[in-house]
Amino acid sequence: MWTRTRGIALALVVLLLAAVVIAVVRSGEKHGTLDPRSADQYGSRAVAELLADRGVTTRVVTTTAEARAAAGPDTTLLVAVPDLLTPRQQQQLRGATAGSGGRTLLVAPGAASVDTLAPGVTADPAPSTDTTLDPDCSLPAARSAGPADTGGLRYDTTRTDADACYPSDGAPTLLRLPDKTGDGNGDTVLLGAPDILLNDTLDEQGNASLALQLLGTRPHLVWYLPSLSDDAAATGSDDRSFFDLIPSGWLWGTLQLFIAAALAALWRARRLGPLVPERLPVAIRASETVEGRARLYRKANARDRAATALRISTRTRLAPLIGVPPSQAHTPETFLPALARQLPTPHQDLHALLFGPPPATDAALIALADHLDALEREVRHS
Description:
- The chain is of the alpha/beta class.
- Helices cover about 45% and strands about 10% of the residues.
- The chain has helices spanning about 1-25, 45-55, 65-70, 85-95, 115, 140-145, 205-215, 240-245, 250-270, 285-300, 305-320, 330-340, 350-355, 360-380; strands spanning about 55-60, 75-80, 105, 120-125, 155, 165-170, 170-180, 185-190, 220-225.
- The strands form two sheets. Strands 1-9-2-3-8-7-6 form a seven-stranded mixed beta sheet. A two-stranded antiparallel sheet has the order 4-5.
């Protein structure tokens, strides 16, 4: 068994080691992504430090309750990954920010969250092909910053009072939606890509200027990093099955694999006519065939099949010697009386020898073969 499976086991070990190495390498690539406390390339500590120099305090929250409590006219609420919020969390957050008079900045919200957090806006399924885009709008912050790395998700809105900036193929990647409720001083900003907030790209183009102007309009900045430990993510959520959690692309891919397997089976089993016998390219000795089949029987412990083959062969060879038609050679009622008449002396139990149960051990199988040979010799010499 080890000889047959060691290749597969070795491949699985190599695959497991490769997965561990890749996981270890990637575990440090995006540690602290969009975290204002992180100084790595995907963190946002640099923009937080620049805001602190301008008198803007930054506070990190990880629960929906904290984010809702922080909403107010002197606060900018940044939601790092809106798509991670459940529908119930999105509704709670929208209810707290609408009419609060503050600013809500959504970083790359997709179709999973934009409908709830920014009513009247839809996310284009095709992202921007360009990273750096020109403002092409009248929003003062965008005009002052100039070109910036906002290329990512694109949006469309039916609101006529929205500021649509940094368009890509006619669809903006930055939207500012004035809040019509409350005192009218609040707004919601949709940012198609997080690049202007990252440490690695903050000093490129007009990223720093745009980030500081979007986040520095109020003295307090609340940075909301959604967390799996948030109780609001589980409370009131609907139970979903395993198949509900599988992306639709995987389901379609599995269906395609089944169709491909069915077509391959039809292709390989395309014979429509009878089998055509062919001459063997090499003549094989009969003794080698017998020995090979015997080894297969021994390997599978198929004593019943071996005993059946020995008895059938013996009866087939004895039938013409005792005057029994070949078609009756395997019928005990016809074969055994004719065999008994042919033997000169009473013999052992012929029924157990020629039609009995299979031997239980290898020794019994060898003894059966010896008794059958002896019976055949006796009939031939009688």
